[in-house]
Specification:
By secondary structure, this protein is an all-alpha fold. The chain has a domain of 58 residues: EF-hand (Recoverin, domain 1, Orthogonal Bundle). It is built from 4 helices and no strands. Bound molecules: calcium ion (2 copies). It comes from Solanum commersonii (Commerson's wild potato).
Length: 89
Amino acid sequence: MPWFIPRRVSHRLSEEQVKGMLMKYDKNKDGKLSKQELRLAFKEMGLHFCRWKAGKALRYADKNGDGYINEDEMSELVQYASRWGLSIS
Ligand SMILES: [Ca+2]
Ligand SMILES: [Ca+2]
């Protein structure tokens, strides 16, 4: 399946659900997602090219430029990442 065609998901996840899932990957519990944490999250959600996508999503959503996704920036991240068809594995 070409990577640029979003995978169809049987049910749409709400933004809150996706946020909750992503925050489970905050391994060091600092309340922010680093690029490594994001990459792991994407990988476990079944995304291909997770390293590349994590970098792209981080650059897009990281509004204050600190290299991490905090709670405020999470909405941007979720909206951006949802185009890739996130799913619960
Ligand atoms: Ca973290
Ligand atoms: Ca940030």
